[in-house]
Amino acid sequence: MKARLESGHVMLGQDGLTLYDQSGFGRPLKEGVRLSPVEALYLVYRGRIEVPGFDFDSLLVHFSGDIHVLRSFLVYRDIRERGYVVQTGPQDFRIFRRGEKPGKGESLYMLRVLSERDLIDFAVVRKEVQATINMRKRHVLAVVDDEFELTYYEVKIQKPAPIEDTQNPEPVCGILSSRSVIIPAAPESVYDQAFYGKRFDDDRIVLSTIESVSLMEQGFVTVNHEGRNITAQEYREMIREFDTEMEPKLKVYQNLRSLNYIPKTGYKFGHHFRVYLGRKVHSEMLVQAIEPNTTLPMNIISRSVRMAHSVKKKMLFGCIHAEGIAYVEFARIKL
């Protein structure tokens, strides 16, 4: 089937309608069918159309003014050869359910193509995922690494539901050792029941700095230091000096606690928190606090997802914004 180049696209005559009707290639117009660059490249690659004066290699060079064309072609080819019909837009691609196509079915995924080095702007991701949700689709990232291997991630905005209330701790007085708050005389304490702190010994509980700040601000803990009770703000400023991530961590911690989830340090897993849903033995999520206007390279996110999956947990990023905190989950999937 013969085609012609026209204004950055490839045009087929009326005979191109067969490709559209059978397999969803291109967009039908009055004068024929218009193919996007990746559709044209794929059809030339498979020998289904001819563009006079071009083979696949020269056509690829022709379209290389778009620096993403090779990456997009690799993703397009992979999805097509998995048995899906795929069209461009409204993000990079929309993918139809297997066996369905334009006019005779609906799309299942909205897909964005990235490289492993692309920066992920969490504000942009939240906006795109929400747009996908509003269209009742699933949001997918196709990441092309430096050796042109593909990995697919589904991205969701999770809305954690509150769970059964845990018992609030009783007001207690703690002592300050360096920056750590220790609660003495705490055998069988309600702090154990509410999952605050860690047992130092049979008589004492030591709180993490984030737990201490939060409990002091709620009035559950007072801390005596050098003969006087220090304020929550004084302690907060003391901690901020050596923990530059304290403020975003505290916001996410307090939000999770308001849902009656139990966040504990996620240091062993390389993240801010491991999170328990109630009194379960194992944590179910890893959560990283993300400040407004934060960007992370996709390869960093990939490491986070790999770690979470290896220990059978969900990987969530707690994105702080003007309206509150949005929990964005990244998970590897197989299309």
UniProtKB/TrEMBL annotation:
Domain of life of the native organism: Archaea
Pfam families named in the record: tRNA_int_endo, tRNA_int_endo_N
UniProt entry tagged with the keyword Hydrolase: yes
Keyword line: Endonuclease, Hydrolase, Nuclease
Gene Ontology cellular component list: cytoplasm
GO MF, one example: tRNA-intron lyase activity
GO biological process: tRNA splicing, via endonucleolytic cleavage and ligation
Signal peptide annotation: none
Record domain tRNA intron endonuclease catalytic: where: 71-152, 247-324
Matches recorded under SUPFAM superfamilies: tRNA-intron endonuclease catalytic domain-like, tRNA-intron endonuclease N-terminal domain-like
tRNA intron endonuclease N-terminal domain: residues covered: 1-53, 174-235
The protein's name: Endonuclease
